[in-house]
Write a structure and sequence with these properties.
The chain is mainly alpha-helical. It is built from seven helices and no strands.
Length: 132
């Protein structure tokens, strides 16, 4: 037993007592970008070693217990975080960064504004066609 794996197990226990659905617990633990286990063991080898520990087996039992409590179906929808990962071609990412810098806003602010404008157009266009 390593100190790191014990710390992860303790954190998992704390989270298990506060989540509303098993999917929330699963996401907090196993998210491939910023999940607790991913951050603690950033390499594939480290994660594979952790999967062989008693602490990992205890975490799986916590997750199974959460599934039993919230239901496999009812607990399958996690709360929305408001964030998502988008993979862009390097050229598009660079162009958006240049525009954000020029406008004096963050890349996130620029992309949210662009999405909001497009969503507004999509919502208003069907209405405008109905009025014709």
């Amino acid at each position: 037993m390593s100190k790191k794996s014990l710390t992860i197990l303790e954190s998992a226990k704390d989270m298990a007592s506060s989540v509303e659905a098993w999917a929330d617990l699963s996401n907090v633990l196993f998210d491939p970008v910023d999940g607790l286990i991913t951050r603690a063991y950033p390499t594939r080898e480290g994660r594979e070693a952790f999967l062989k520990t008693g602490e990992y087996r205890a975490i799986r039992r916590l997750l199974e217990s959460a599934m039993d409590e919230t239901g496999l179906i009812d607990g399958a929808t996690p709360k929305k975080s408001g964030k998502f990962l988008v993979r862009l071609p390097i050229s598009l990412h660079a162009a958006l960064e240049r525009e954000a810098t020029t406008e004096g806003v963050s890349l996130n602010q620029l992309v949210v504004a662009k999405l909001a404008v497009q969503m507004s157009r999509l919502v208003s266009e069907p209405q405008a066609q109905l009025e014709r």
